[in-house]
């Protein structure tokens, strides 16, 4: 009798759990750890906010720049907190903070996905955030400043720009991640570039996307990053897998993928456009311009790639 009562209780609990999962899932889905894994979202730090870099539609003025430091010319890189540097140009204000940035070029320039160069031309010029400095002396022809926050070594010639405080990104509690969510019709774009010109991306890394405040994007918004199999089909390297044989000797009617001529198929043709798009992670917006946004990857199911799609996530 006790065993019967225990089994009945377990059945009721199991039924209730499945019912609760079904109620919290979109129509046509069953929430499981496979297609709805829990995501723990990383919260951006002060360094993440001020060291992310950005892409700007127009070139920043370069009339104010770093000229050197206490040990110039013996020392050409300045990065220690409290280190003094000299700022060339005019209109520095004593006690004012400034932002040191660098206009970038990729020494190994090549397209990592079709159309990347054209998108970058529309987005503008990439810049690296190097440091926040505060002016402590303006009596000479050059201002003297000390480094308050260092992101990367400063070099002579790096640009000195105006500084603006950034609001912290609020903590986001853990939630369920829908791996196979179809398009929600919200604003979307692509990951076009990444900090340090990286191409294989994971949690904590910074990315630059081709949509901004003109599309209603604001700091603190979240994007769902996704990848379709059509992207692999059109990639000269990844597409090689689609051209390999998919047949197995015991299959009476083996299928082919996109009419692969290497597979003698009497079976069905699998069209990659019909495969579900897969979500690969979440990105939070750290900064925006009218046409671009800087984001930080806060959750990744797998490596993100340049060219991956992004879509505003209303969650």
General description of the model:
With 315 residues, this protein is of the alpha+beta class. It has a domain at 48-162: Elongation Factor Tu (Ef-tu), domain 3, CATH 2.40.30. It contains 5 helices and 19 strands. It is elongated and about 85 Å long.
Task: Please tag this protein with its features.
single chain, 315 residues, alpha+beta, Elongation Factor Tu (Ef-tu), domain 3, seven-stranded antiparallel sheet, 5 helices, 19 strands, 31% strand, disordered N terminus
Describe the secondary structure blueprint for this structure.
Blueprint: H1 2-23, E1 38-39, H2 46-50, E2 54-56, E3 65-69, E4 84-88, E5 97-103, H3 116-123, E6 125-137, E7 143-150, E8 159-162, E9 175-176, E10 188-194, E11 200-201, E12 206-209, E13 222-227, H4 229-233, H5 240-243, E14 256-257, E15 269-270, E16 278-288, E17 293-300, E18 304-305, E19 309-312
Parallel strand pairs: 14-15
Antiparallel strand pairs: 1-9, 2-6, 3-4, 4-7, 5-6, 5-8, 6-7, 10-12, 10-19, 11-18, 12-17, 13-16, 13-19, 16-17
